[in-house]
Design goal:
2 domains; Dihydrodipicolinate Reductase, domain 2; glucose-6-phosphate 3-dehydrogenase activity (chains A, B, C, D); alpha/beta; 11 helices; oxidoreductase (chains A, B, C, D); 376 residues; homotetramer; nucleotide binding (chains A, B, C, D); GFO_IDH_MocA-like_dom (chains A, B, C, D); NAD(P)-bd_dom_sf (chains A, B, C, D); Rossmann fold; nine-stranded mixed beta sheet
Chain lengths: 376, 376, 376, 376
């Protein structure tokens, strides 16, 4: 068994999901490589130690530059807020480390281009944690599309609806709510949520040509969690856009954190000439499928419970009817990454894949600001 | 256009559904016969007149015997409580009238047999209003079964769950609540609700051999609506039974008026070797269909929205996607009955069909009383 | 009983729905006025006669001008293609007739303004058949909003998805497919489908300020049904737009006839600070309702089966659990119109209400043409 | 951190689920004890070694008696076919080991009683892996019932429907299909599937008084996987029963492996005077809840997405909207067991709890054999 020594930067929500992926991949997948939890890095040493203790990291660092220099680290996992992705990734690339970076790739396209150049110049393996590609039902959707089952595509629509910031007393900034602080997050729902929808969309339906968007910030001021000061909110609370895809289909996207009743309603639907598919994160183990070639009197949307051994990834889990959950998307991504070390083939989404998503996000924000269509 | 002169006995809930069927059938179906609302009969003349006025009956009677004697009446529609079905039907048969009798056929099998003999001796057309056979989705189920799409049947299950008698203050007896009075109704949920399930089951899956049942009366005493007296409740509040069908499949049936949250949840499901179907009155325009021959990775229950022109009855209504409702089952039954006058072919359910259901109901009640299996 | 003498122009799909409304309203609603089917008018006399025969119209006209002149007609029902709405309505107004006009009001805002002026100058009652307001679940939504249950509104979204024109062999023009011919229909999905969504939206959520839209025509040429000639398709096959409402909420609308698997998927969802609601024409008797004030551990979307006597219109139909269908929306509209004759109060949607929808439709088409935001 | 040294007997499907529980509990729950994977035991040494390698067991045994004698083992996990549960458990109890035994407890009640006596005489901690109690939605159901939210209970119904043995070519006996061999399994769906339903039912709704059952074996002969011989099938392919609970409610249970289209449809529903709940393993993260005290016009079944921090176990996982899956029930059971070592309080289901389920299973099989009601 070959090892892959992991150096993790950050210990928050995403630190847990990735680490769990490293712990579980080899239990369920037959792989030649096995991740070793070498070190976790965070400025707060006490918290880093507690995290290391809970998950079994062998050591702790408080300076990410030092972590990157360590010879016993093969891969750097970047789980910091978005405004540190660039600096860390470029440094890690220069140090010859593989990089697994949390999404979105960067604060903007310019940063993303620098990062792509860095990893490509250094020739290091790189990947971005757009995890939803590896929900079995979504991977199945990809297979169905690649098999040509949908025929010519007319419509792609996706939304990501939440409701956790409706209360105007939710602060901005700091550990739990940096996603509301434009300085740490870059943007609001566009980079946080729509980026997921866009990554999946490009993967499933190809490139996006141009976009027209609208954004809204419903709560104009929020207290900053660290300073206690009331400050203008500069992120987008909600964003909708339509677009053209290279294949001629129309796209429609929406995201908000003000959709009362929706916790994390990421849905996507694709309408093709011959068939349509639909998926919903709230019941992620199901794929809805409509096949126009079915006998007309019994034609209807099929609710496919994606838990059988012949469906993506599911042969590695339990038996038909028994579902898996959110965290498994990260386990699958780790397993695929480890497999790619065996085969030598790159797997997506790479930094360059993620740069495409970044470009669409930038075009969306620019379109909303200028109230005009923008090319990607 | 030939006419069919209707004499309706009763003006309650079922009086409305049947009369609406007579009014609407010719608007939507191409028929040679047209019902004429000749007379409605009820003891309460004032209420009968109001009903006649609202629906366009030409005349009113207060004595059903007189109605039966009228030469200008072709068909008697029996919408009284169950304890009058026998007497009226036999008299009508003797008078040579066609009879359309509300379900259940009778208070018990013995009565039902007399009634069958009467209509068959007289050679008059007869029909019982088991209306759910003519929900388009249920009729479609019948077609699918007859086409052999399900293969060998293993399981048939049905339930009819309501919650309207949970409150112990609901009285028994009288106009609105005669269904809780054993003298008027014969039985409780067995004759009222399970009879529907059994009629459909026999139609779809064939005869029932033997049954084992349990009944329960949760509220032991209720005030009688007419006398104000507190009296023991003699009907069954709930009834479950299992059975064997002639084709070797197992049946499981349940009905209750104490299932909080269910208004009229009549569901049925049939599991065959090759396919399964499922239906629910609460969304009556949908049929769930599972076909094992579908490609395995996209196999799942299909939700068929039964509103297309090639699905039963729907070519006579609107356009795909636009649903019809409860009352349409009676319109379909009227249309089919009128059509049968053209073709000369009997249509079900006839009195004799309904007698089979009556026999099962009797066996169920007897089994529950004796805590033993009973042959039908 | 007072009478309302109806003169119907057109006998197509909408002729049937309206006529059925006239036939049924008094069977189920307690009203002082009763419609009388005086005359139906169409250029094709034979078809008009067949229609009159089937539904009971007393007479037939082939020239709508003659119908309008008849003294025995109280109300003109306009069921023609859109390009005749203006001329007929203005003539009928001048003749002092009440007017019940099929939607959309007109070919464009300019026509609509003339029509409003005509009916208001003449002081005649007028109404437009935006029937979906009177689906019980939608009317219930209106009541919940008016009660303030949703609080401040953040998002309104609606779509109307169909799939019946995917096949490029579907012709344009003529009786069945005039909706694909820009000369008869004015626009494609915008006037046909989005107009419904917009009418409901304005009713539920107030006026629309500005819009940004995109349209697409997937099939560029279709044969004309009457000439057999291949002609460019000038209608919009698909249209999406976002908008701001006067109340500060964001709107998102989409319609298409290329969404494989959807027959008539008209859905709407409103997200408020305190509660959200959702509705779907495919299961029109249900309203989804999420109330944030519910105890958190059992909080969830409620599936409300809108069939109880205390829910809008349902006290006039059957018993809880038994659903009604599409055609009932027209019966309700007739009943409300008849009631308004008793009370003297106008009921919506009036021509002026429908003009607001027309303005939004025009802004949408103009925005799509210019790729720019447009004020309404 | 204190350790709990595990000795696992068996390495099949259940060996994986339990072992995963031991690996994951401390990653997500704050506990003073931590399981250590000391040894896995199986007759096939090669397979045992492969399993040990994959999951990190420190050693391998091929004789379970030897494992039980080892001083470095604190707890024995019994994952063998049912016919070995008794012998191993009694030996382990005598050796003073804690025992975590896969369900069902035993081949029959007599065995179960011996086992209970053994663990109670020895005073060793004991637990049976009825894992479905610890689906968060099911645990929430228990809390709602204990809070009195449902009021008096009228009905409890549950089913467990599968379709994997329809094909008559599926063999009996051996590693993958010992569940079809009566000698290894004791019974068919009764012990395999209904036992789960019964355990949950007793936990949620109290003891069962008497039962009436029917069983069926659809495929009469199957080839034995090990001998290749065609032998009579002695297990029950399907079983239904009704029962009375001590609290006066009626129970209705059904299980089969011949319900085409259902992979593992374990559903339960409880109807109380004040509220009802419903759950389905196929979407295990949802609980349906109907509360009669809701305002009547917006009353409906709530679909509760049980993923919030204030719902059972979910504070230890991700964020609202992100679901967990099947394997987590075992992680929860491990976590609760470890916690019980801290608190000293026993947690269920104990051997004695499981004995109650065994008694009901025996009564069910006896009732079916004799076609008569049986007391439990």
């Amino acid at each position: 068994m070959k090892t892959l020594n992991i150096g993790m930067i950050g210990y928050g929500f995403m630190g847990r999901t990735h680490t769990n992926g490293y712990c579980q991949a080899n239990h369920f997948f037959d792989l030649q490589y096995k991740p070793v939890l070498k070190a976790v890095c965070a400025r707060n040493e006490e918290k880093a130690k507690a995290f290391a203790q809970q998950w079994g990291y062998e050591s702790v660092e408080t300076d990410w530059r030092k972590l990157i220099e360590r010879d016993d680290i093969d891969a750097i996992d970047v789980c910091t807020p978005n405004n540190l992705h660039k600096e860390i990734s470029i440094a890690a690339a220069k140090a010859g480390k593989m990089i697994l970076c949390e999404k979105p790739l960067a604060m903007n396209t310019a940063e993303g281009e620098e990062m792509c150049k860095a990893v490509e110049d250094a020739g290091v393996r790189n990947m971005v944690w757009y995890n939803y590609r590896r929900v079995p039902a979504v991977t199945l959707a990809k297979q169905l599309i690649d098999q040509g089952r949908l025929g010519k595509i007319f419509h792609y629509r996706a939304n990501f609806l939440q409701d956790w910031t409706i209360n105007a007393d939710v602060p901005q900034g700091g550990a739990a709510t940096w996603r509301l602080d434009a300085e740490a997050a870059g943007s609001g729902v566009t980079g946080d949520l729509l980026a997921h929808c866009i990554d999946t969309a490009i993967w499933l339906n190809g490139g996006i040509t141009d976009v027209s968007a609208v954004t809204e910030t419903f709560v104009k001021e929020r207290t900053h969690a660290e300073t206690g000061e009331k400050k203008p909110v500069k992120i987008d609370d909600a964003c909708s856009f339509f677009c053209h895809f290279d294949n001629g289909s129309l796209g429609l996207f929406e995201s908000t954190r003000y959709a009362r009743g929706h916790k994390a309603l990421y849905t996507l639907e694709i309408n093709g000439e011959k068939a349509s598919i639909r998926w919903d994160l709230h019941d992620l183990h199901r794929l809805e499928y409509f096949d126009h070639s079915d006998d007309s009197v019994v034609r209807g949307w099929r609710s496919v419970h994606v838990t059988d051994g012949d469906q993506p990834y599911m042969g590695n889990w339990w038996v038909p009817g028994l579902q898996i959950g959110y965290e498994h998307t990260f386990i699958h991504q780790v397993a695929d990454f480890l497999k790619s070390l065996e085969t030598g083939e790159a797997i997506g989404p790479t930094f360059r894949d993620a740069l495409e998503t970044q470009k669409v996000c930038d075009a969306v924000l620019s379109s909303a600001a200028d109230r005009a269509w923008k090319n990607v």
